[in-house]
């Protein structure tokens, strides 16, 4: 079953529930600053696990104390879909300071 692109309005409404996430062209993006390189690396591993569970993967960048994500749905023509926003929500749930890990 194909995944349908979201409208600009739908994307903006759903991003309002995901502080720090924003629309950047045809993708949603977010950066996190963590307390150490080790913490950032651990977060990347947790994100990778979530991505495998969802079978949906972002461009993921590990910096010195930072983790950055950029995601859109390749199978829908490189646009933002509900799959992208679900991944963003799951990442928010595991981010430090958000009550999960």
How many angstroms separate the termini?
Answer: 33 Å
Number of H/I helices = 3
- Annotation, overall tally of beta strands: 4
Uncertain runs: none
Overall 3D geometry?
globular
Radius of gyration: 13 Å
Strand line-up across the major sheet: 1-2-4-3
Order of helices and strands: HEEHEEH
Helix-strand category? alpha+beta
Strand content: 15-25%
Largest sheet: 4 strands, antiparallel
Write down the overall mean pLDDT.
Answer: 93
Notes on the structure:
- The protein contains three helices and four strands, in the order αββαββα.
- The mean pLDDT is 93.
- The longest helix is centred in the middle third of the chain and has 18 residues, at 37-54.
- The chain has a four-stranded antiparallel β-sheet.
- It has 101 residues and is an alpha+beta fold.
- The chain is 39% helix and 20% strand.
- 22% of the residues are buried.
Keywords:
single chain; 101 residues; alpha+beta; 4-stranded antiparallel β-sheet; 3 helices; 20% strand; globular
TL;DR?
The protein has 101 residues and is of the alpha+beta class.
Write the layout of secondary structure elements.
Blueprint: H1 8-15, E1 22-24, E2 27-33, H2 37-54, E3 59-62, E4 66-71, H3 82-94
Antiparallel strand pairs: 1-2, 2-4, 3-4
Helix pairs in contact: 2-3
